[in-house]
TrEMBL record:
Membrane-related topology note: Multi-pass membrane protein
Transmembrane segments: 43-63, 83-101, 113-143, 163-189
Domain of life from the UniProt record: Bacteria
Keywords: Cell membrane, Membrane, Transmembrane, Transmembrane helix
InterPro entries: UPF0750_membrane, YitT
Cellular compartment(s): Cell membrane
GO-annotated cellular components: plasma membrane
Protein name listed in UniProt: Putative 5xTM membrane YitT family protein
Annotated Pfam families: YitT_membrane
Length: 201
């Protein structure tokens, strides 16, 4: 059954990466408007951006660079190239979108939930076109395979460190709101990204 599933065409992959990264860029804009953070490399990039004043895009792009070697070795050149393209697009969009779209009032809890929903939808689009936003997910799979530690625990540990760092630059209540958004995102991925329901190559 799996062998009969055709790969996405180049045009389909391009629109999938474009739509996915644009949705995640919208999520980042919502988070920044409410001074929120999230997990993974995106969350670390937001914390670093708040602390340094440097834009999210350049930090996110730079932090992902070391992971491409591991991605190439573990998941192949097709996944690595698509992931590099997705990271580059998101880095670009997060610098461009604020010039065309801003939010005057964003309640932290509402912003967190909406950011989780938009990021979840965007990541699903990327996953279904054989890409990701790099970073911790690749390392988590490698640690699971080589050390026997669950990928989920690795990602949870990294996210816990990101939110702990966030306490140094944003208020505890804001960190709590951020955690709600991260939970929404993870629930969306957990309930919708299943290989037994959708296979794309």
């Amino acid at each position: 059954m799996q062998d009969s599933v055709a790969r996405h065409s180049l045009i389909e992959d391009v629109q999938g990466l474009f739509v996915g990264t644009l949705l995640v860029a919208l999520s980042v804009q919502l988070l920044k408007s409410a001074d929120l953070v999230t997990g993974q490399i995106a969350g670390l990039s937001l914390v670093a951006s708040y602390a340094s004043g440097i834009g999210f895009g350049p930090i996110f792009f730079a932090l992902n660079l070391p992971f491409y070697v591991l991605a190439l070795r573990r998941l192949g050149w097709r996944f690595t190239l698509k992931t590099f393209a997705a990271v580059a697009l998101l880095s670009l969009f997060t610098e461009v979108v604020p010039h065309f779209l801003s939010f005057e009032t964003v309640h932290p809890l509402a912003g967190s939930i909406l950011a989780g929903v938009t990021a979840g939808a965007g990541l699903l689009a990327l996953f279904r076109h054989g890409a990701s936003l790099g970073g911790v997910g690749i390392v988590a799979l490698w640690v699971q395979d080589t050390r026997g530690i669950s990928a989920g625990w690795v990602q949870l540990g990294f996210d816990a460190a990101v939110f702990a760092l966030a306490l140094g630059v944003i208020a505890p209540l804001t960190v709590f709101h951020s955690l709600v958004g991260a939970a929404v995102l993870n629930i969306i991925i957990a309930t919708n990204h299943r290989r037994d329901r959708y296979i794309a190559r």
